[in-house]
């Protein structure tokens, strides 16, 4: 484009300024788009009932779904720390997937049929809670 201005003999200070302004605008727009994409990364923690290393494997597998970049469950604290893209999935949706696998979360009671199918070591004492029942299977 710059060569076109030279060939036509129309290159002057004003054209140079317009090109600089356009480049600046494009740089700012690209920075804004990148910042928006990276800003959608969220991290949260919530309780998930479980007992053992087998539970850890099952819970983390159920949580690792589209949009989740990291899921770490602690056997000691019974908390899952989740890093995810909030534009693709919500914490609530992940909790529903975990409940569908048979594990109780803060918001959802694990699916009874899935809970019954868990290994014996994974069957913890379930409390009566006011949590919603997962409708995912």
Mean pLDDT: 82
Q: Report the uncertain regions.
A: none
| Text of the CATH class of the largest domain | Alpha Beta
Radius of gyration: 26 Å
* Total domains: 2
* Major β-sheet profile: 3 strands, antiparallel
Strand order of the largest sheet: 1-3-2
Q: Give the topology string: H per helix, E per strand.
A: HHEHEEHEHE
Q: State the helix count.
A: 5
Count of extended strands: 5
CATH topology of the largest domain: Alpha-Beta Plaits
Helix content: 40-55%
How would you portray this structure in words?
By secondary structure, this protein is an alpha+beta fold. The protein has two domains: 2-38; 41-133, Alpha-Beta Plaits, CATH 3.30.70.100. The chain has helices at residues 2-8, 13-39, 53-63, 91-100, 112-116; strands at residues 41-47, 68-73, 79-85, 108-109, 132-133. The strands form two sheets. It has a three-stranded antiparallel sheet with strand order 1-3-2. A two-stranded parallel sheet has the order 4-5. The relative contact order is 0.14.
Features:
137 residues, alpha+beta, Alpha-Beta Plaits, three-stranded antiparallel β-sheet, 5 strands
Task: Give a quick summary of the entry.
This protein is α+β, with helices and mostly antiparallel strands.
List the helices and strands and how they pair.
Elements: H1 2-8, H2 13-39, E1 41-47, H3 53-63, E2 68-73, E3 79-85, H4 91-100, E4 108-109, H5 112-116, E5 132-133
Parallel strand pairs: 4-5
Antiparallel strand pairs: 1-3, 2-3
Helix pairs in contact: 3-4
């Amino acid at each position: 484009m710059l060569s076109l201005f030279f060939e036509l003999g129309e290159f002057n200070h004003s054209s140079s300024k317009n090109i600089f302004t356009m480049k600046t605008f494009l740089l700012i727009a690209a920075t804004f788009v990148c910042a928006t994409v990276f800003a959608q990364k969220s991290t949260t923690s919530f309780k998930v009932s479980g007992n053992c290393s087998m539970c850890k494997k099952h819970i983390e597998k159920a949580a690792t779904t589209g949009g989740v970049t990291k899921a770490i469950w602690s056997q000691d604290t019974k908390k899952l720390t989740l890093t995810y893209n909030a534009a693709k999935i919500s914490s609530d949706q992940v909790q529903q997937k975990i409940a569908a696998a048979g594990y109780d979360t803060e918001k959802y009671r694990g699916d009874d049929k899935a809970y019954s199918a868990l290994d014996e070591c994974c069957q913890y004492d379930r409390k009566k809670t006011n949590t919603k029942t997962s409708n995912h299977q």
